[in-house]
Amino acid sequence: MSLPFPESEPDEDALESGRLLFRRRTEFLKGVVAMDGLPPDDRAEICFAGRSNVGKSSLINALTDTKGLARASNTPGRTQEINYFTLEDLYLVDLPGYGFANAPVKVVAQWQALMKAYLGGRATLRRAFLLIDHRHGPKEVDEEIMSLLDRAAVPFQAVLTKADKVKAADRDRTQAALRAALSRHPAAFPEIVLTSSEKGTGIDVLRAVIAGLD
Q: How is domain 6-211 classified at the architecture level of CATH?
């Protein structure tokens, strides 16, 4: 499946770089519940953010080709920590899902505050990948996170998940809505990556994007 912006689709060299990077072993490092628990900022890192049940854990498992590396759950909001993974000299960071969460209000508030503190205060964060469910498109809470990333001057790129579950008639509408939302945010990259963790769609493209980060 191509990107909505074909001119930005990675070439063969970029795809190979992504393949080679993610052939390396990815390991879980730690779960963080407070900013003072973050690992040393001795390497670049990328993070994955998105609404609860958007498929972050499944996407990380597909990217790393490691079943069960990130804990996927049918219960939205189960991930309550910032989870760090190591891949060569890069950190992969799985952020708590935002929006609906099946937990007490006080607990939800605590880990949402942690996520926002991380996004606004991690100097080594090279890019945030903002996951959007292709079936539903961007919501108000997604735009709140986009605005937070704008204020923190953190470049971010949208990744549409669950692309295999979208009816053909709805694809253009959802992508147009997302492109319109991204155009309002100076920290956003215009290129959107379409993915399906279940079918493997777009995983090679996202690997290439990550491998190509300076």
A: 3-Layer(aba) Sandwich (3.40)
Query: Hey, what are 27's tokens?
Result: 């390991």
Q: HEC profile for the chain?
A: CCCCCHHHCCCHHHHHHHHHHCCCCEEEEEEECCHHHCCCCCCEEEEEEEECCCCHHHHHHHHHCCCCCCCCCCCCCCCCCEEEEEECCEEEEECCCECCCCCCHHHHHHHHHHHHHHHHHCCCEEEEEEEEECCCCCCHHHHHHHHHHHHHCCCEEEEEECHHHCCHHHHHHHHHHHHHHHCCCCCECCCCEECECCCCECHHHHHHHHHCCC
Looking at the predicted structure, is the pLDDT value of residue 43 above 80? yes
Judge contact between 210 and 18, C-beta under 8 A.
Answer: yes
Q: What is the pLDDT of residues 78-123, one digit of tens each?
A: 457 899 999 999 999 999 888 765 566 776 677 778 888 898 889 8
pLDDT reading at 15 higher than 60: yes
| Burial class, 9, CB count within 10 angstroms (exposed 0-12 / middle 13-18 / buried 19+) | middle
Tens-place pLDDT, residues 181-204 = 999 999 999 999 999 999 999 999
